[in-house]
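Hey, resending since the last one bounced:
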Amino acid sequence: MKNLILRTCTGIAFVALVVAAVLSGDIILLNVFMVFACIGLYEYVKLLDTKNIRISWWFYVTALVTYFLLAYMRSVKLLDVHVMLIILTLMACMLLLEVFRRQYEPIVTAAYSVLGVVWIAIPMSLVNILAYDYGKWTLLVMFILLWLSDTLAYCVGSLLGRHKLCERISPKKTWEGSIGSALLTMTAAGFMPLIIPQLSLTVWQTVGMAGVIIVSGTMGDLFESLLKRSLNVKDSGNILPGHGGILDRFDSMLAAVPFVLLYLVIINLL
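The structure tokens again:
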């Protein structure tokens, strides 16, 4: 009971922080997710340390500069090919440093370095781009649907779950929980334009976005579970009592936000 109360209080505080950041505006959102990115990158490096995979300090430089360039430059309308060339140059330097550091299995450390930038820094920065290009209400709805999907999958799975979704990676996930969550989340998505009239999406566009979130979010959750299982760790950190680390709380979002952005770009082109 004590752990449940702690988990609930932590969850409420975390949700309140994210919602406040989303609704507060560009600069606060950028800085809050910069902090999240820094913590997530630190957790990632500590996870790799458990297997004696030690990546260089240049990883932090590349990841944080990538976050800043993508998130901030977009907000001042300076995101262009030159920014992308800078990021690619930084990543090339990072790869060269890893390969020539005389570490055990340098290709492995180089691959993990690239993974950290792509999996953590870029999605965290895309949160800001989504808010800037499509509005804070669209970003807020994305988070609401992510949280609904995760919570409903757990609840439905606990009540009705019989068939494992991917037992090798995440033994607690079931097909019943995933399907039930998908149906309920997409139903809830249909009401979002009515509940939040500021939302610039139609009912069917919001339902479509929910579908993208459900599939990509589930894949993100499974990916982090696979990573932790391969490293023999339970949680990415302990900064959120009862929940683990920042990567544990953002696992679904890190995978979902690039696909949500792609979906929004496509429907705006149609």
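The CA atoms of residues 35 and 196 lie 28 Å apart.

Sorry for the duplicate.
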